Amino acid sequence: MRKKIPTITRPDPAYAASLRPEGEKDPGREETVLMPMSMTADVADEDQAPVPSRPSVPSPQPSPETTTEIITAPTASQPRVRRIPATRKIDIRVNALERQEEALIDCGVDPAHVIRAALRRAVKTWQLGPEFVPPSEEQRTRITEWRARTSLAVDANALTSILHAHDPLDVLSKWALIRGQIEPRVWAEIDILLDEIAVRAAAQNTENDTSTT
Fold first, then answer.
1. Residue 151: CB partners within 8 Å, gap ≥ 6?
2. CA distance 52 to 6
3. Which residues contact 186 (CB under 8 A, 6 or more apart)?
4. Nearest to 155 by CA among 83, 85, 84
5. Other CB atoms closer than 10 Å to residue 114's CB: what's the count?
6. What span, in angstroms and rounded, lies between the C-alpha atoms of 115 and 113?
7. pTM to 2 decimals?
8. pLDDT tens digits for range 18-69
9. Counting beta carbons within 10 angstroms of the beta carbon of residue 155, is it exposed (0 to 12), middle (13 to 18) or buried (19 or more)?
C-alpha cells in the first residue's frame, strides 16, 4: 500500500527558500544599495537645517568729493587755450622826412634799407590804440624810391573803434586812420639808425687810422 503524499496548503518560506536557485533574488528580502559618497553627502545635508548664508559686504563707493576729483582731474591737466585777438591787415606806405634826406644820403647805406629797417623796429612792439591820432604835418621827402611798403596786422577791435568815431561811413583809407600812430615811430627809428651808423663809421675810421700809424 502506497504512502500518501501530504498536500501543502500554505506556503512554507523555509521550504521555498531551499528550492530557489542561488542566482534568484528573494523579493521579500531587503537589499542594501551602496550609494556614492557624493550622493550620501547630499542626502545627509537635506536632513540637516540649512546654514544661513553670510550677508555680502558691499564694496565701498567713492565719496562725492573723490568722484569730482576723478572727473575733473583730466580737465584740470589740460593746457589752457590762449585766444588770439582778431586782426585786420592794412597796407602801409612810410617814407622819411625831408629834414632826414641829407643824413640818409651821407650815411653810406642805401636810404631805402635804412627806412625799411626803421619800420621793422617801429612796429615790432607797437599795438594800435583805439584813439584816433591825426597825421603829422611834418614835410615828408619827395623821393618816392625810398618809400617802404608792407602790410600790417592790427587789432580789429581798435580799428573798429576808430572807424566808428572818425569814419562812420567807411570812406577813408585805413592807412589814413592809423598813420598818425605809426609814422612818428618810424621817423624816430630813422634818427636812431643814422646815429648808430655814424658812431660805427667813426669807430671804424679811428681803428683804420690806428692800424696805419
1. 89, 90, 91, 92
2. 69
3. 94, 115, 118, 119, 122, 148
4. 85
5. 22
6. 5
7. 0.60
8. 555 555 455 544 444 444 444 444 434 444 445 555 555 555 565 555 555 5
9. middle
